Amino acid sequence: MQEMSDARQAIVAAQTAGATNATSPEYAAAQAAIARAEAHLQAQEYVRARLAAVQAKKHAAAALADAQHSETPAAVPH
After folding, report:
1. Domain count of the chain?
2. pTM across the whole model
3. CA distances, 41 to each of 16, 36, 56 (Å)
C-alpha cells in the first residue's frame, strides 16, 4: 500500500532530522498512527489502514518541519 510506504519514509526523514518521541509530540503521533495502520492492515481493514497511514505521514511531516526548524541556528545579534 503506497500510503504505508509514504508514511514510513516520512517517519524516517523526521527521525533523520532529529525528531524523537521525547522531543516531538508530532513524531510520537506519527509512530502511533503507523502502528495503528499496521494493525488495521493485519486485520485486513484496508480503508482504516490507509487513513491511519495518511495521518502518520501528516504527523511525520510536521515532526520533520519542527526538527528542521529547531536545527536553525539562532540569529547572532551584531
Report:
1. 1
2. 0.86
3. 26, 9, 14
Distance CA 6, CA 18 (A): 19
> Taking Cα atoms as reference points, which of 51, 8, 47, 2 lies closest to residue 30?
8
In a domain, 77, yes or no: no
Q: Flag whether pLDDT at 19 surpasses 70.
A: yes
Q: Which residue range forms the structural domain that includes residue 31?
A: 2-71
CB < 8 Å & 24+ apart, contacts of 38-41: 38/4, 41/1, 41/4
Domain-embedded: residue 55? yes
Task: Look up residue 58 and give its three cell numbers.
Answer: 501528516
Please state, in angstroms and rounded to a whole number, the distance separating the CA atoms of residues 13 and 19: 9
Percent residues over pLDDT 70 in the chain = 90
